[in-house]
UniProtKB/TrEMBL annotation:
This is UspA domain-containing protein. Residues 3-133 form the UspA domain. It comes from Hymenobacter nivis. It holds the Pfam family Usp. Coiled coil: none annotated.
Length: 136
């Protein structure tokens, strides 16, 4: 089995679009997926731009397990610390082919937020990063 793809998810439909795209890649690559849910961070779901509300660890675990069960390839779920430390830990542990990040809030998200998120992640964890737009 090839190295996995790590998909950052926050349970919004837009990041689930990124997950669907990553799952398609994983099928082609015969790779696994790792769902990474980091605790709320302004990088992934800016408070002023999205209706984020924290959920319990138990609820998060259940949601990740349900999401993992729906995927067409073996999928592991991880709920970690704040970004970007969670990404650093996932890269160290799983040695993925790449990181997959969906753009938050679709077309309404300023380019600066998306670029800033990517740059912060790439600065902290210099690793291949695929940004999937909200619509394909």
């Amino acid at each position: 089995m090839a190295s996995p793809l790590v998909v950052l998810t926050d349970f919004y439909a837009v990041t689930n679009h990124a997950l669907a795209y990553a799952a398609g890649l994983a099928v082609s690559l015969k790779a696994e997926l790792v769902l990474l849910h980091a605790h709320h961070d302004v990088l992934l779901a800016p408070i002023g731009l999205s209706p984020y509300s924290p959920i319990s660890d138990y609820t998060t675990t259940q949601a990740l397990q349900a999401l993992a069960a729906e995927q067409p390839v073996p999928t592991h779920e991880v709920s970690e610390r704040e970004l970007p430390e969670a990404v650093r830990a996932a890269v160290h542990r799983h040695h993925p082919w790449l990181l997959v990040l969906g753009s938050p809030d679709g077309a309404d998200t300023p380019v600066e937020i998306m670029t800033g998120t990517a740059m912060d992640l790439l600065t902290t964890v210099p690793y291949p990063l695929l940004m999937v737009p909200a619509t394909g």
